[in-house]
Write a structure and sequence with these properties.
By secondary structure, the protein is mainly β. 2% of the residues lie in helices and 49% in strands. The strands form 13 sheets. The chain has a 17-stranded parallel sheet that branches. A 12-stranded parallel sheet has the order 46-49-51-53-56-58-60-62-66-68-70-72, with helices on one face. Strands 1, 11, 13, 16, 18, 19 and 21 form a 7-stranded mixed sheet that branches. A hairpin with a 2-residue loop joins strand 36 and strand 37. It is globular.
Length: 963
């Protein structure tokens, strides 16, 4: 079990060490020399085990330094014991036992026992009755002649105050032994001479014993060493981690000898060896392992002489390319240098090795089609295999644009109903961009309408499938069926409903859309239906959606998702995962897991499992595993609405995983606060993978939540955001997720500090798809620094841009954009933009709303700077491609904004709009932006609007633009 947050370490230890039940493993290796250390509480923070515990009163409480927390054994089951592992043989002569200061007087009959190996114990102090009296601080001191031991056990046979053993603190005093380790040689991590912040625990690594864990940034371990000979040494670290955030600095005094990254090994007890190289002077010295990263375990460190060449070549310089002929790209670069000699260069194209040349060759010719976009870099290498850092990167943009399969790679295929290749005798809707219209709210801005018996639309499978999702719209207050035929054979019906659609608002108050469900006009008209088929049907199979007698009176068919779903998974290991069943609820399974430290979590098999409230994860990291999102379904009561279900992850459960299941909420309007499938402020190192969630307010809204991973999730039909990270949430990975029909920004980053924190930093939003966003943007970044949005696909936003880049505070305490670049790299936006808010006093008035472009850059009331937007394709935006706007009266300028390699196709008005006046008193835009290879193709009116009316905004045309 691993607790990541140093600010909650004391709370976390209450639960964490309950894992250490059972017999402890072998002792440390033999030290070479020993020196006396000062008297101290040798048990402080050391690992503890016990014969058992009642409720939450775990053994770890006796070494946590807090007399208010306590261990209580199993009731009515004497004798009972609790023991502490001092980590090595130690000379001891005294224990101090405590109970909470306010407790009434009681006497406990107990003995003090010692052991060298954790299995064979002898009495250090024979059994006697000891009185704990609040007048004496509820403290008892027991002494004996000094003896060398490793394990101290308190063996209790009676208690006059309660039918169980009870202790709040177990303090041990004596003289610890400090070892001096020889180099070359192996150092056991727990054999430190001094430390800060860490704890130890039994290890499952080869050889057993203890490892060091609970490591946060700033923690350290010191070792007395004797280096036999000066020179270069290979230093091996034996590490384990469930994250990619670990980093070790080896220090000697104030000098950092090496900095070594700790990889994600796949678990806290999945051990790997990582190697670095250091130069050491000879003689007696102190080496410090300093944690410059966090969340990893270490078992040992080993030093061995190293005489090999470890110096890599310098990076190749000034990489350039030319195109001497069609389909031909010639690269050239400046030579690298090396202490021995450069033997060759490796050339990478789009991240993959493309070819190699000798060390004397400084060019490479590649063949690529004209429409391919290719990025190159070059790496130098020497004879021993040392490689340089990459050269600079150059990109040749293909004639076909930048777009190449952007977005999430999901296991389903989407087939649009209105596609010309589909057969239908229904009505294909004429596309439009009208909110609250069955065409305007459809994917692709069109659908097929069936309103007479026998009308159909027929799809052809492009890949094998045994499951379908039908996006459709039916009449308000309707639940019914629509018929399904496969290769002309009746295969039953979809159940279709309007329960979660038809959300009302008034056109003049769209800011309340989603909240009140009250007004004069219905919006958000489409909903999904799911159906597992009777078999896997091959590609080429005909799937027909048909209105028959007995079906709903009419239906709009928007699209289908086709998927080949694997059979339900079984429990991966019944010895490690408690299985939920009809006789064992999820809460009961979790309780059984918490009481057994050998368990890793729970398994929820296929079926529908009704939840009436949030499930709280606490105590330690917990794995929640389902049989697959089509099979394991967590369902809110369907006869209720707006029930807050899902998971609440406490900070002591950091490191938890939830995967391979689906969740079906019952929200019918937005409430800010409840309604998140995942709750967990301050959450760290949590993984949410392959989860399918619908009809909630959000999947997750993160507050000061860092180092978490959200992958392979489906987020549909929400009333607010899909995933939004705020209040200092940093270094999260949001990768390969699909969102459709969110009620606010699908994927967002909001650098608010109203609930604490600082800039959101180092987050990676990659390989994401967001479509049919009902309110707000597909992707939104509101401040922060050093964050990356990459490989994104957005389409059919109903009211807002496909991408919002904004420094508006929304009236909260927020930060704008910081010193590090915010990078948006690789985006395709189809049919994005829309109408929202009012536009009284607008200079370029189209209707009564503010009209948004596909990408909206908005300098609000916080700093707007250091923004890079590159490699973007904007296709058929609702109004404009790029839109620049400033909030008044602040009029903060846009600074260091760079737009590179952007294609804007078929904007009906302008490719680029500089807002002169969004509404009365708002504008014009202020600052500057640079444009490189920004191409506006076939605009409806003009390539750029407003340049002559925005005197305080500078358009910097660098090169490659066509306007």
């Amino acid at each position: 079990m691993k607790i990541a947050n140093s600010h909650t370490r004391m709370l976390a230890l209450v639960c964490a060490f309950s894992l250490l039940l059972g017999t402890l493993l072998s002792s440390l290796g033999t030290p070479r020399t020993a020196d006396a250390a000062a008297l101290q509480n040798l048990a402080a923070g050391k690992p503890v085990t016990a014969s058992g515990h009642a409720d939450v009163y775990v053994a770890a409480n006796v070494t946590d330094g807090n007399p208010g927390t306590y261990w209580e054994s199993v009731n009515h089951a004497f004798p009972q014991w609790v023991q502490v592992d001092l980590g090595s043989q130690t000379t001891v002569h005294q224990v101090v036992l405590k109970l909470p200061p306010g407790w009434e007087t009681r006497a406990q009959t107990l003995s003090v026992q010692g052991s060298a190996n954790g299995s064979s114990f002898t009495d250090l102090k024979s059994s006697a009755s000891y009185t704990f009296n609040p007048a004496a601080g509820n403290s008892v001191t027991i002494e004996w002649s000094p003896v060398s031991t490793r394990y101290i056990r308190i063996h209790v046979t009676a208690n006059t105050g309660w039918p169980a053993a009870q202790l709040s603190e177990l303090e041990v005093y004596g003289q610890s032994e400090v070892v001096t380790w020889p180099i070359p040689g192996k150092i056991e991590a727990e054999g430190y001479s001094a430390m800060h912040g860490i704890q130890t625990e039994p290890t499952s690594d080869i050889g057993g014993g203890l490892n060091v864990g609970w490591i946060d940034v700033g923690d350290w371990l010191e070792y007395n060493v004797h280096v036999q000979s000066a020179g270069t040494y290979a230093v091996d670290y034996r590490v384990a981690s469930n994250a990619s955030t670990g980093q070790i600095q080896l220090r000697s005094g104030t000098t950092t000898l090496a900095t070594t990254a700790v990889p994600n090994t796949g678990g806290w007890q999945n051990w790997q060896t990582v190697t670095d190289y250091v130069t050491l002077s000879a003689g007696q010295q102190t080496l410090r392992l300093y944690a410059s990263g966090h969340d990893f375990n270490i078992n040992w460190v080993q030093f061995a002489p190293d005489n090999a060449d470890r110096i890599p070549p310098t990076a190749p310089s000034n990489l350039t390319y030319t195109e001497p002929a069609p389909d031909t790209i010639r690269l050239a670069w400046g030579a690298s240098t090396d202490n021995v000699g450069v033997t060759g260069y490796d050339i990478y194209a789009n991240g993959l090795l493309r070819g190699s040349v000798s060390g004397s060759t400084l060019t490479y010719t590649d063949q690529q089609p004209q429409n391919a976009t290719v990025s190159y870099y070059v790496v130098a290498k020497d004879a021993i295999g040392n490689t340089s850092s990459p050269s600079n990167t150059v990109t040749r943009y293909g004639s076909g644009g930048n777009d190449s399969g952007r977005g999430a790679n999901m296991p389903f295929t989407i087939l649009e109903a209105e596609a010309p290749s589909n057969r239908t005798n229904g009505t294909r809707l004429t596309p439009n961009y009208i909110l609250g219209d069955f065409a305007g709210e459809a994917s692709g801005r069109s659908a097929v309408y069936l309103d007479r018996n026998g009308q159909y639309v027929e799809f052809t499978l492009t890949a094998p499938a045994n499951a379908l999702v039908l996006r459709n719209a039916v009449a308000e207050n309707t639940t019914g069926t629509i018929s399904l035929y496969i290769d002309d054979v009746d295969k039953g019906n979809f159940t279709v409903t309007s329960k979660f659609s038809y959300v009302y608002a008034t056109p003049t108050t769209l800011d309340r859309l989603g909240y009140d469900n009250a007004g004069s006009k219905a919006y958000w008209l489409y909903e999904d239906s799911q159906l597992m088929l009777d078999q896997v049907y091959p590609a080429g199979t005909k799937i027909r959606i048909q209105k028959d007698a007995g079906d709903v009176p009419w239906i709009y068919v928007d699209m289908i998702e086709t998927e080949n779903v694997a059979p339900p998974a079984s429990n991966p290991n019944p010895n490690l995962y408690v299985q939920v069943s009809n006789s064992k609820s999820i809460e009961q399974a979790l309780q059984e897991f918490r009481q057994d430290p050998s368990k890793k979590g729970i398994f929820i098999p296929a079926g529908e499992w009704t939840l009436s409230s949030k499930i709280h994860l606490y105590g330690r990291a917990t794995e929640i595993i389902g049989a697959g999102p089509w099979h394991t379904k967590l369902v809110a009561p369907q006869n209720q609405t707006n029930t807050d279900i899902g998971f609440n992850i406490g900070q002591e459960a950091n490191g938890s995983t939830i995967r391979d299941l689906s969740a079906w909420g019952n929200y019918v309007y937005r409430q800010d606060g409840p309604g998140k499938f995942i709750d967990g402020n301050g959450m760290r190192n949590v993984t949410i993978d392959n989860v399918w969630a619908e009809h909630f307010v959000c999947l997750y809204w993160g507050v000061n939540s860092s180092y978490n991973t959200f992958t392979n999730n489906r987020i549909k039909n929400m009333f607010a955001d899909g995933i939004n990270m705020t209040n200092g949430s940093s270094y999260n990975v949001i990768d390969n997720n699909y969102a459709r029909g969110t009620g606010d920004d699908a994927f967002a980053l909001f650098s608010a500090i109203d609930a604490g924190g600082s800039y959101n930093v180092g987050n990676k939003y990659t390989n994401l798809t967001a479509t049919n966003v009902r309110r707000a943007a597909a992707f939104a970044v509101y401040g922060g620094q050093g964050n990356l949005f990459q490989n994104l696909y957005g389409a059919d936003t109903l009211t807002y841009p496909g991408l919002t880049i904004s420094s508006l505070s929304f009236g909260y305490n927020t930060l704008g954009f910081g010193d590090q670049d915010t990078v948006i790299d690789g985006v395709t936006l189809d049919r994005t933009g829309g109408d929202f808010w009012t536009s009284v006093g607008a200079d370029d008035k189209i209707n009564d709303y503010q009209n948004f472009g596909a990408i909206w850059l908005f300098a609000g009331d916080r700093s707007f700077r250091n923004i890079v937007v590159k490699n973007v394709d904007i296709n058929n935006p609702v109004y404009f491609g790029l839109m620049f706007q400033t909030k008044s009266p602040e009029n903060l300028p846009m600074e260091n904004v760079r737009l590179e390699n952007i294609n804007i196709h078929h904007a009906p008005r302008y490719g680029i709009k500089l807002v002169v006046s969004a509404e009365a008193g708002q504008g014009p835009v202020v600052g500057e932006a640079s444009f490189t290879n920004v191409r506006v193709n076939n605009p409806g009116i003009t390539a750029i609007y407003g340049e002559d009316r925005t005197p305080n905004f500078r358009v910097i045309r660098v090169s490659g633009n066509n306007w």
